Amino acid sequence: MAADTAKAWRVSAADGAEAVVAAMRALPRTEGVQHNGCRALEDLAHRDAANQAAIARAGGIEAVVAAMRALPRAEKVQQHGCAALRNLAASRAAHQA
């Protein structure tokens, strides 16, 4: 039962990452969408290598960077964008020194 729950979470997290990235791409200058998108990716990426990979495959890294570039004065976009990138890099062995 626990394995089924974990598998369902992985599927929903992967689909969630794709949906978040699609919304961020569709509304690149809408601060609320970008803020909440960065925050969602930040949460999904927190200490979860499978989610980090799903986010990367969905184009989440590029979406976060694009949001931060498009809205440089939006404090929450910058805050959660940095946190999302931190979480995406934190557990990836390829990015460790």
Describe the structure.
- It is a single chain.
- The protein is an all-alpha fold.
- It is built from five helices and no strands.
- Helix 1 (2-26) runs parallel beside helix 3 (49-57) and helix 2 (31-45) runs antiparallel to helix 4 (60-70).
- The longest helix is centred in the N-terminal third of the chain and has 25 residues, at 2-26.
- It starts with a helix and ends in a 7-residue tail after the last helix.
- The model has no long low-confidence stretch (mean pLDDT 87).
Q: What is this structure's SSE topology?
A:
Blueprint: H1 2-26, H2 31-45, H3 49-57, H4 60-70, H5 75-90
What are the key terms here?
97 residues; 78% helix; mainly alpha; single chain; 5 helices
Compact overview of the structure:
This protein has helices at 2-26, 31-45, 49-57, 60-70, 75-90.
Q: How many runs of DSSP E, i.e. beta strands?
A: 0
* Biggest sheet architecture: none
Number of helices: 5
Encode the helix/strand succession as letters: HHHHH
Strand content: under 5%
Spans with pLDDT under 50 lasting ≥5 residues?
A: none
Helix content: over 70%
Q: What's the Cα radius of gyration? A: 13 Å
Question: In angstroms, what separates the terminal alpha carbons?
Answer: 38 Å
